Amino acid sequence: MKIAFLGPHASFTQLAATQLFPDDELLPQANILDCFNAVNRGEADKAVVPLENSIEGTVSMTLDYLYKTPSIKIEAEGVMPIAHHLMIHPENNMEDVEKIFSHPQALAQSFHFLDTEYKNIARQDFSSTAAAAKYVSENRDLKIAAVANQFAANLYGLKIVNRNIQDFEQNHTRFIVISKEQSKYNNDHLEVLGEKSGMLINLPEDHPGGLHQVLSVFAWRKMNLSKIESRTLKTGLGNYFFFINVQGKWEDVLHGNALLELQSINAEVDFLGNYKEFLLES
């Protein structure tokens, strides 16, 4: 199979994709939209993209494209502990560094460490942690460093000067496997953390108690919602769709009737699938 992932090489998403699809062809993509397009056009069978970080929150682009491409569903989730390291060219010294490059989320997740240890060194956003590491490896003459992962340090031959610089130990990123098939992904080599269903819900009009009606469908059935998040429809202020996760295995009668009741109150529902959540290694 061909698996698209948010690149470049040595990104955290590649690390996730490598564990989820160790024997398949991995195709790096420049951005999240390219991952969705690769699947939608049949250039890739599946794609791995980030959905949420425990510190920085939901990746809004992923939610937006799930909503805009209803043909694409979710097959699995992978949760990975995130470890950031500060690295330089092996022939340079940290004392000479004048600028630190990385993805905005990596810089934000390491803000307190960098502000304490390297307060006077400027920081600059880069397209990804891996791209920042590659840039450092290719520019020995520049006095720069990168925040990236161990995979990137190994791939580009960089020297790690500070390990695990993330501000919080409980720094995890949730990745999803997307495809145009509602098939079940399974992997006997990965620990299963749980099972859930995902859906996008859009209320056709704003009226008092509208969201309460939706939540009541799940509440009286004692269906546990592990996530509910609103996202703007971009059609005007106050217009939103909702991304909802329901914990547990799919039960045809219980879950099926819930979907029917949602439709009966004129809620538009895009059922993204019932899928397992796997633990990945950093």
Task: Tell me what you see in this structure.
The structure is a single chain. The protein is an alpha/beta fold. The protein has two domains: 2-81 and 172-180 and 193-279, D-Maltodextrin-Binding Protein, domain 2; 85-162, Periplasmic binding protein-like II (D-Maltodextrin-Binding Protein, domain 2), CATH 3.40.190.10. It contains nine helices and 15 strands. It has helices spanning 12-20, 32-40, 60-68, 104-109, 111-117, 129-138, 150-156, 210-219, 252-264, and strands spanning 2-6, 25-29, 46-53, 57-58, 73-81, 85-88, 99-102, 122-125, 144-148, 159-162, 172-179, 191-202, 225-232, 240-247, 268-279. Strands 1, 2, 3, 4, 5, 11, 12, 13, 14 and 15 form a ten-stranded mixed beta sheet that branches. It has a five-stranded mixed beta sheet with strand order 8-7-9-6-10. The two termini are 24 Å apart. 38% of the residues are buried.
Q: What is the name of the CATH architecture of the largest domain?
A: 3-Layer(aba) Sandwich
Distance between the terminal alpha carbons, to the nearest Å? 24 Å
**What CATH first level of the largest domain would be assigned?**
Alpha Beta
Uncertain runs with pLDDT below 50, 5 residues or more? Answer: none
The profile of the biggest β sheet is: 10 strands, mixed
Shape: elongated
Helix/strand structural class: alpha/beta
Under CATH, the topology of the largest domain is which? D-Maltodextrin-Binding Protein, domain 2
Secondary-structure element pattern, one letter each:
EHEHEEHEEEHHEHEHEEEHEEHE
By DSSP, the count of extended strands is 15
Number of domains: 2
Give average pLDDT, whole number. 92
Task: Give the helix level as a range of percent.
Answer: 25-40%
State which percent range the strand residues make up.
25-35%
Instruction: State the helix count.
Output: 9
